[in-house]
Specification:
By secondary structure, the chain is an all-beta fold. The chain has no helices and eleven strands. 0% of the residues lie in helices and 53% in strands.
Length: 119
Amino acid sequence: QVQLVESGGGLVQPGGSLRLSCTASGSIFSFNAMGWYRQAPGKQRDLVAAITSGVSTNYADSVKGRFTISRDNAKNTVYLQMNSLKPEDTAVYYCNAKRVSPYDTRDYWGQGTQVTVSS
């Protein structure tokens, strides 16, 4: 059973920074991609950033230039460095791991971590 454990959320002032971590119960090499999604109250869950096993990355337009996703394979951990935070970044952030086979695509999710940007 895959487990993803997130940490690093909290309350930060506008313009501040936070780093989220997501540690998998097994090797992250087994996943085709890992990423971070976020969901604000009353809104859908949207992709924030993703990184493939080949370390290609993609970002939502709203976070480009401010957020950076990275991975440490030795620690089975993916990070999201968030700089220049804005109130509109407030949401629950979820770690996602994706495993693609010829037969299906499986998504695994963490429990979520709250990020609140407020003065």
